[in-house]
Amino acid sequence: QIQEPQLQGQDTGMQCEDDRTGIGVETLKRAFLDNLFYVQGKFPALATKHDYYMALAYTVRDRLLQRWVNTAAIYTQEGSRTVAYLSAEFLMGPHLGNNLINLGIYNQVQQAMTELKLDLKELLAKEEEPGLGNGGLGRLAACYLDSLASLEIPTLGYGIRYEFGIFDQLIRNGWQVEKTDKWLRYGNPWEIARPEWAVSVKFGGRTEAHKNAQGRYRVRWIPHKVVLGIPYDTPILGYKVNTANTLRLWKAEAPESFDFEAFNRGNYYGAVDQKVTSENLTKVLYPNDETYEGKQLRLEQQYFFVSCALQDMLRIMLRQKLPLEQFHEKFAVQLNDTHPAIAVAELMRLLLDEHEMDWEPAWEITQKTFGYTNHTLLPEALEKWSLKLFSSLLPRHLEIIYEINWRFLEQVRHKFGTDEGRIGRLSLIDENDGKFVRMAHLACVGSHKINGVAALHSELLQKTTLLDFYEFFPEKFTNITNGVTPRRWIVLSNPKLTNLITSCIGDNWIKHLEDVQRIETYAEDPGFQQEWQQIKRENKVNVAEILLDRTGVKVDPDSLFDIQVKRIHQYKRQHLNILHAITLYNQIKQNPNLDITPRTLIFAGKAAPGYYIAKLIIKLINSVAEVVNKDRDIGDRLKVVFLPDYNVKNSQPIYPAADLSEQISTAGKEASGTGNMKFAMNGALTIGTLDGANIEIRNAVGAENFFLFGLTTEDVGALRLTGYRPREYYEQNPQLKQAIDQIASGYFSHGDRSLFKPLVDLLLDKDPFMLMADYQPYIDCQQQVSQTYRDRDRWLQMSILNTARMGKFSSDRAIREYCQQIWKVQPVPVQLAAEKTGDG
Ligand code: B1H
Question: Second label for 437, Cα 20 to 30 Å away, from 342, 403, 451, 577?
């Protein structure tokens, strides 16, 4: 019998300043130098900045591990109900700074580094961020993990350990160039591999019937290939709690390094080939945000991580000696969009084929287990897999999906009679134009709750995309408006604002963002306003330095910082923003003495490598920037800058430096948006349409503190129906005509008239996102913005009220709603062993 190891420090009484857990400045310095020597193998004299970063990362990791191990022990002991968040993307951002905040040791560590003549900021900058996501959807998953841990909810995040995350973006001659993201190049101090919990995942082949020991027919799947899934765990520490949950990401490996038979036949390359093919599975993140590509490798990735996750949950149940009938009581599994929706069929397969359960109980467990979050209404993002591909890769799952569909459509007939139109619309199989498996339908049928991510989005889901499902089971539908974590997006990103708020109202707001309300009483206080303005200015100076460093463009920190940072998409309308830039430029050119509010327009964001128009929009922004920025008539009154390689790390200084946040999507297209929340929390005012969470933000901060313009979702629908003629707006509006004509004539492209022709033609002939209709209202609204900015006191008051009233948009609120409405989970507080025994 092996004895359980004693938790360190339990009976020594010395854990407080233990070199691996202590948080005093002296202890931190000692531990840091120790790690530099024993982990990095360096003396300070030879150490690089990166060595110092690694030494600090390990010093912090030691302090996490104690909490992580304790958390796991308590969850295991208590068999706690656990959230499993399944997501193809987790856009975590750098870990070090966030862990310092959540451990509550930022200041001590800063002091320790200073005493060692090092600059904490420089070390933080050395971290290569894990860019395992495209944009909002992946970043939402990361914010939710932070809130789940902070609220002490037992959670496992399950996803894919892509060897290459989202590409790095370079700008060459104004065009986007993609570079592979080698984030693992120098090692990853935040993860621990757990090869002992590897699982096998099958692909392809065929199925056959066989009789089991009880003489009953079961199905057996004889695969064509098997891939190993190796879990890599990263601790996710909550804010000032002992809870450290786990993000478990799976890497694909070949079951054996060699096919020995092939090797013995002298086919060395053939033998290595299998290994290479297997490992391709988790090589690279698909860089499409909201456009679906029917690629086999993508379906393989989805099935791979889902199967790994569900097998892992079954292993945990076995270890905790829980019967499989209690699967849905042990785990609440959330599907982050349809990317993991194959989980519905996979759980059925595991219960039916591998654990010999009958259909009815297995189906009941499955439906009670899953919840499904929809993140988009864009038709091009809805996943459907051709039957040909699906059956060749997942033959057993297709059989199960047919059975689910058959039983479901029987119920539909029972409720609505034989309405073949309705049945065709509800079917899990699309037979309109070729045959496809509809993943959103599988997710709806296999889940007990379906939610959208903002009030408008959930309403539109029920009225349009999922209308037939809503009519069939209305009780499944709900809304949970997105939120973002104030720890990363205020405390870490904007330390000066954090100190000011805390000096006025204490620090409770960091855990309960509704409390930030209390700064409202200072909204008109001249002293407070003065400090508020000073902080915004310092944050703008910081960004001005970054812009100068990365783009060579010098901007005036006293100008209005007007910022649009997000993925480049037609529906997000970066090109509408550029039409405004051109309009301002023309106004100044026509009237060189024009007294306008000086502005700096800042753009950043990546375009999917295959999205031609999005890449052309980047080129247009840079082309306009080139002309505007070097025009001496313009001077400091207008600057346009494109900041390359937008990612979590680069975004952190941006939100605190914004005066104006651009949230200008065509109404009805942006499901929620989350950047809109990060800006407003940091005191930016929003110019925006009635879309996604903008509507709720405007309701919260007050209509008088929000710059609204543009068509509503209803207007958009009505205009389409009556026949939208974009060219008429162009012909009837001289300012608009001038701007478009300049783009077309080569004014911004050294006379090249062909360069932007595809974009111009699209806008004048089709304009699918109605820029022409929204142009003048947008320009007028921007004029309002400029006017208001000149009234310093009014602007400051509006800015303060924005921050004060953003409490609702904390991801803590969102997660509380998920816990109550969907997951039915309770917090499980974690005490450190030392605290429990009372000698800490
Ligand atoms: C969102 C996606 C998305 N919605 C497919 N859908 C992807 C779809 O790789 N793919 O195949 C990747 C991403 N992402 C975003 O989710 C919405 O556009 C935002 O409005 C929303 O705020 C965010 C989080 O809910």
Answer: 451
